[in-house]
Design goal:
Blueprint (H helix, E strand, L loop, with lengths): L2 H25 L4 H12 L1 H4 L26 H11 L6 E5 L6 H10 L26 E5 L10 H12 L16 H15 L9 E6 L8 H10 L4 E7 L10 E5 L22 H13 L10 H10 L4 H9 L1 H4 L2 H8 L28 H11 L5 H7 L6 E2 H10 L4 H13 L4 E4 L6 E4 L2 H12 L2 H21 L3 H6 L4 H12 L1 H4 L4 H21 L1
Parallel strand pairs: 1-4, 1-5, 2-3, 3-4
Antiparallel strand pairs: 6-8, 7-8
Helix pairs in contact: 1-2, 4-5, 6-7, 7-8, 9-10, 9-11, 10-13, 14-18, 16-19, 19-21, 19-23, 21-23
Length: 535
C-alpha cells in the first residue's frame, strides 16, 4: 500500500481510539451529568458508534486500561498467570483472594501482557506492522462491582454487561414469570455465542476479564456455557473471592496472597534489603509520593516492617496507611497513630481511604468495610463462629476451636464445615507446621481485628465467648503435667497472653474466683515457659 493510502487508515484508527478514550472517561467521571452522556452514548450506539473499516470484524476495540498503576512485588505471579492463560487446555483462570489483596491490579497487568496474543486477525492492510497503539486487540475488561449483590436481576445484568462490552445487541424478553431474569440471561448468552460464530468473527480469539465476580456468583453457569460453546475462541480471566465451580477441566484457581515481608526475627544485611520485599517496597514507594521528606533509612527500617506486618502485607491497607504519612510525617509517628498502646490492637477507624469517594466499590471505603462485606456473605451459621475464632491470637488448632465452640453450642461437624467455609472465603488460612500432622489455622491480623470490632458490638455474645476461651486455656495449663505437654504450650504463648489479658479485665473477673485461679496459674506457667526458652 502506498504511503498516501496509509495515512487515512492511520488517522481513522487514531480517531476510533480517541472516541473510545472520551467514552471511557465520561463513563468514569465524578459528575452525574457526564456519566449520563456516556449512558446516552451506549443507548444510541447505532447512531454514535465509532466507524469500522469494512475489512474489520464487528467486534469493538479493547476497553482495557493500557497503563494501570505500577505492579509491585508481583512479577512472579504475573509471569506464571500469563503462562497459564497461554495453555491451550485452560479455559478459565480465576484469581482468588481476600478483598484488597490486589487481584484486580494483577489481572490488568496480566491482560495487558497478552495483547499480542489476542490481536484482531482482520487488520486493515498497512497496519500489520504497527504498534499496539494502532492495532486492535480483543481483550475486554468487564467490571461487575457496581452490580448490587442483593439485586434480584444481578445475573442477567452480568450477562448483559458482557454483551455490552462486546457491542452485541441486548435482547428484550417480556416474561412476567422471569422474576430473576434467568430466562433472559440464557437467551442473551446464546445470542453472544451466535454472534461469535459468525464467519467474520469465528477466527478471532477473545480474552474476557471478569472483575469482582463474587457479586454475581449465580452467573457462573452462563460463563460455563460460553466457554463450552467457544472453547478455542474464548479465554476468561476472573477475579473473585471464590472459584466459579466450572470443574478442574475448565477452570484453574490462582490464589493471590499477601505481599512478601521479612520473616519475624530475620536479620537483614542492609536496610535497603527491604526493597526486595513486596510489602515494604510498596510502603516506601507510596510514602515517597505523599511526603517529599520521607526516605528509607536505617533508623526507620524496622518500624516500617512492623507497620506492614500489622497490616498483614495487604496492598490496599498499605496504600491507605502510607497516604497518612502526609499527616504523621514520620513512620514512627505513623505507627503510634496506627496502634492502640493499651491493647496493642489496630485503630480501625484510622484505616479510612480518603480517596474512596472516587471508587465505585463501597468495599474500598476502609479496612472494616472490606471484611464486613465478606462477613455479610457468610452463611448465617458461620457468622458467629467466625467472630468467635477471632479471639484466638497467633492461630489455633482444630481441638481448640472445637472445645471453645462446643461450649458455646456448636457441634464438631458445624465447626469443621465452618472452618472449611472460612478457608474457601479467604478469611482463614491453614498451615501444617514442621513436626506436626495437624494443621494450625490463622487469621490475617487485619481480618482478625475487623472481626473483633464486629464482636465488640455484641456485648453478651462477646462476654460468653471470652468466658469459654479463657476456661479452655485454664484447663490446658492445669492438665499440662508432663514436661512434653508443657513444651507444647509454647506454641500457644500468644493465646495464653491474650487469655490472661481478658482474665484481668474487670468484666471477666466478675464471673468468679476461677478467674483468679487462672491468673495465678497462668502467670506461673508463663514464667516457666519464659525461663525455659532462655536456657
Amino acid at each position: 500500500m502506498k504511503k498516501n493510502e496509509e495515512e487515512p487508515k492511520k488517522l481513522e484508527e487514531k480517531y476510533i481510539e480517541f472516541l473510545q478514550t472520551v467514552h471511557e472517561r465520561l463513563r468514569k467521571a465524578k459528575k452525574d451529568s457526564l456519566r449520563r452522556i456516556a449512558e446516552k452514548w451506549d443507548k444510541d450506539k447505532a447512531q454514535l458508534d465509532w466507524p469500522k473499516p469494512e475489512s474489520e470484524c464487528p467486534l469493538p476495540r479493547t476497553n482495557l486500561e493500557r497503563k494501570p498503576d505500577e505492579l509491585i512485588g508481583r512479577a512472579d505471579e504475573k509471569s506464571t498467570a500469563r503462562d497459564e492463560l497461554l495453555k491451550d487446555e485452560l479455559k478459565v483462570l480465576t484469581f482468588t483472594g481476600l478483598g484488597g489483596i490486589g487481584k484486580t491490579l494483577l489481572c490488568k497487568h496480566v491482560a495487558n501482557s497478552l495483547r499480542n496474543e489476542f490481536k484482531c486477525k482482520h487488520v486493515a492492510d498497512g497496519l500489520q506492522n504497527e504498534s499496539n497503539d494502532h492495532v486492535k486487540d480483543h481483550i475486554y475488561f468487564i467490571e461487575l462491582a457496581e452490580i448490587d449483590k442483593d439485586d434480584p436481576l444481578k445475573i442477567v445484568k452480568a450477562v448483559l454487561e458482557i454483551a455490552k462490552q462486546l457491542n452485541i445487541g441486548m435482547l428484550e424478553i417480556e416474561d412476567e414469570q422471569d422474576k430473576d431474569g434467568k430466562k433472559r440471561a440464557k437467551a442473551q448468552i446464546e445470542n453472544i455465542i451466535d454472534h461469535l460464530s459468525k464467519e467474520n468473527v469465528r477466527e478471532e480469539r477473545l480474552l474476557l476479564v471478569l472483575d469482582n465476580f463474587e457479586h454475581v456468583r449465580g452467573a457462573a453457569t452462563y460463563v460455563g456455557r460460553l466457554v463450552k460453546a467457544c472453547p478455542e475462541q474464548v479465554k476468561i480471566l476472573v477475579t473473585s473471592r471464590w472459584l466459579l465451580g466450572l470443574g478442574k477441566d475448565n477452570e484453574k484457581e490462582f490464589p493471590v496472597e499477601e505481599l512478601s515481608l521479612p520473616k519475624d526475627g530475620q536479620s537483614l544485611s542492609s536496610y535497603e534489603d527491604l526493597l526486595k520485599y513486596g510489602a515494604t517496597k510498596l510502603f516506601v514507594e507510596q510514602s515517597g509520593g505523599v511526603e517529599p521528606k520521607f526516605a528509607l533509612s536505617k533508623e526507620n527500617a524496622q518500624i516500617i516492617v512492623e507497620i506492614c506486618r500489622s497490616l498483614s502485607g495487604i496492598p490496599f491497607m498499605i496504600k491507605v496507611v502510607a497516604a497518612k504519612l502526609s499527616y504523621s510525617k514520620t513512620p514512627q509517628a505513623l505507627h503510634e497513630n496506627l496502634i492502640d498502646p493499651k491493647t496493642g490492637r489496630l485503630k480501625l477507624a484510622w484505616l479510612t481511604n480518603k480517596e474512596s469517594g472516587n471508587d465505585p466499590d463501597p468495599r474500598h471505603k476502609d479496612a472494616l468495610a472490606i471484611t464486613a462485606w465478606s462477613y455479610d456473605l457468610l452463611p448465617s451459621v458461620t457468622k458467629p463462629l467466625f467472630l468467635q475464632l477471632a479471639l484466638f491470637k497467633g492461630g489455633f488448632t482444630k481441638e481448640a476451636a472445637e472445645k471453645v465452640g462446643n461450649a458455646t453450642g456448636y457441634s464438631g461437624v458445624v465447626i469443621e464445615n465452618g472452618i472449611e467455609t472460612l478457608i474457601d472465603d479467604k478469611l482463614l488460612e491453614d498451615e501444617v507446621q514442621e513436626g506436626s500432622h495437624e494443621p494450625r489455622y490463622y487469621m490475617l491480623e487485619v481480618v482478625r481485628e475487623c472481626a473483633l470490632d464486629i464482636l465488640d458490638k455484641t456485648e453478651e455474645q462477646k462476654l460468653k465467648v471470652e468466658n469459654h476461651y479463657v476456661n479452655y486455656y485454664l484447663e490446658q495449663i492445669k492438665e499440662a503435667n508432663s514436661e512434653n505437654e508443657k513444651v507444647q504450650l509454647e506454641a500457644e504463648q500468644s493465646n495464653l497472653r491474650e487469655a490472661l489479658r481478658l482474665a484481668l479485665l474487670e468484666g471477666v473477673l466478675k464471673l468468679g474466683e476461677k478467674r483468679l485461679e487462672w491468673v495465678i496459674c497462668c502467670c506461673d506457667e508463663q514464667k516457666t515457659i519464659s525461663n525455659r526458652s532462655h536456657q
